[in-house]
Specification:
mainly alpha, 66% helix, 234 residues, 16 helices
Amino acid sequence: MVSTSQNVAKELSALGNPEKAVFLAGFFKTGKGQYAEGDVLIGVTVPEQRKIAKKFRDIPLDQVSFLLTNKIHEFRLTALFILVLQYQKGDADTKKKIFDFYLKHRRYVNNWDLVDSSAPHIVGDFLLDKDRSILYDYARGKSLWDRRIAVVATQRFIREGQFEDTLKISEILLKDSHDLIHKAAGWMLREVGDRDRAALESFLKKHCRAMPRTMLRYAIEHFEPEERKKYLER
């Protein structure tokens, strides 16, 4: 009997587009020495993946695991879309099970789109009313993707008007060496500023001179041109 996960894989594979796959391989930096070296793309669009995820949203976690541990990028992203759908409709026990499953399998959440499509909706949401120390552990960790999970998960807190963890984790990441972390932290800081300009300006007053330029540019993207210039010339 063919498993449901194999049906998901079959449908995704049928939608593969070799020309798109070549473009996406470059876009997601899969070349030798790049951050996603060895990742395999088959050229399936995100809307197509979301449609398949919705169709198979109720498959059991062991079959989600089959997809999430696969070398093909679109299989992993579709698996994460399925996890988010299951999490959103689940009761408290289901949410805990999916959160634990996600953390156990997080080494497969290993590109920026995979993190950004899942971390706020699962990790951030689950920790909304709980201890968040695990995010600080991830922010200080060696894994690029753990560090991105740590800061992007706080998007969920930001949307509830809770900014403290975003600011503290962004401070930890000021000395991070990777551009993907600079972009993620800057993005989250920008979201803080969209809701509480004073909170962002307080952070900038303290840290703007030490911030990586990419992080700073992302954080002040919604400022007026003269204000952006003022910060960038400091």
